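Technical annex B. To support the medicinal chemistry partners, we prepared a structural model of the target in complex with NAP, based solely on the information shown next.
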Amino acid sequence: MTAVAVVGLGAMGSRIARRLLDAGNDVVVWNRDPSKAHELVSAGAVAATSPADAARRADAVITMVSNPEALDAVVGGPEGIAAGADTGTTVIQMSTVGSEATAKLASALPEGTGLLDAPVLGSLSEVESATLTVFLGGPDELVRAWEPLLATLGTVLHVGGVGAGSAAKLVANATLVGTITLLGESIALADRLGLSRDVAFDVLAATPLAAQAERRRPAIESDDFPRRFALSLARKDADLIRTAAPDLRVVEAAREWFLQAEQAGGGDDDYSAVLKEILN
Ligand SMILES: NC(=O)c1ccc[n+]([C@@H]2O[C@H](COP(=O)([O-])OP(=O)(O)OC[C@H]3O[C@@H](n4cnc5c(N)ncnc54)[C@H](OP(=O)(O)O)[C@@H]3O)[C@@H](O)[C@H]2O)c1
C-alpha cells in the first residue's frame, strides 16, 4: 500500500488526509499544533514526530500550509521535510504559495527527490465530495505515478512543469478575489443610486455576476458568512498575484479591500466577509 504523509492539518489538509485515509491509503500526519492530528490518528492515521519523520515514513509527502513562510518552516532545518526526503520521496506541494516559493522548495530538496506542484481550487465541501480541481505541475513520469492518488481528491489538470500549478492557481484566485469585490461594489452602487436590494439582485441576475450574486445573497441578507477560506489567506493570494504581476490594477484594487477588511480585524473571517467591508 502507498504511504502518504500530509504535513499541515488545517481546514484543507485535515480533510485531504481524511479523504486519502478513506480511500485506503496508509496515511502519516504532522501538524505544528499536534492536537489537530488526534482525530485522524483515531481514524487510523499515524502521527509523525516532525516533518522530517513524516517524509521518512512516506512515499509521497503532501504539504498543505498557509503561506510561503509556513512552507519554509516545514521544509527547512534539521526537522524539516528536506532532512527526511530522499530519492524515493515525492513531495506534492498543495498550498497556495506562488511560483517563487515553489522554486525555492525545489532548490531546498535533496538531489533526486521528486516534486509535484499541486495547488487546488475548491474548498472544504469540495475536498469532502472529491470535487477539487488540482492544478498539477511536474514531469510526466511523476504525474503518471501520482495522478491516481490526486484523482481521489477531484479532477486533475496537468498544466505544465513544476511551478505551472502554482501559476494556474494564482490565475484562478485572481478571478475569485476580483469577482467577489466587484459583486460588493455593484451592490454598493445600487445602494448609492437608491435601488432596493431586491431590485439590485434582480439586475445582477441578468449580468455576468449572476451565479456569484445568487450564491452570496443569503450570506449578505443574514449577515452570516460561514468560514471556509480565511480572508487573510485571500489577501495573501492577492499579495502573491501582485508580486507576480505588479502592474495589474483590478486585482490590486481587490487586494486593498481585503487588506482593509483584515486591518479592521476580519482576517479570520471567511473571505466573502469582504462584502461586509464594502457594503458597510
Ligand atoms: N480553505 C480553503 O478553502 C482553501 C482552498 C484552496 C486552497 N487553500 C490554500 O490551502 C492552504 C491551507 O489553507 P487552510 O484553509 O487549510 O488554512 P488553515 O486552516 O489556516 O491551516 C493552515 C495550516 O498551516 C499551518 N501553519 C501555518 N503556519 C505554520 C508554520 N509557521 N509552521 C508550520 N505550520 C504552519 C497551520 O498549522 P497550525 O494548525 O499549527 O496553526 C495549519 O496546519 C493555503 O495556502 C490556502 O490559501 C485554501
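Notes passed to the chemistry partners:
The first strand starts at residue 3 and ends at 7.
The pocket of NAP is lined by residues 8-13, 31-33, 36, 64-66, 69-70, 73-74, 95-96, 120, 123, 228-230, 233 (CB under 6 Å).
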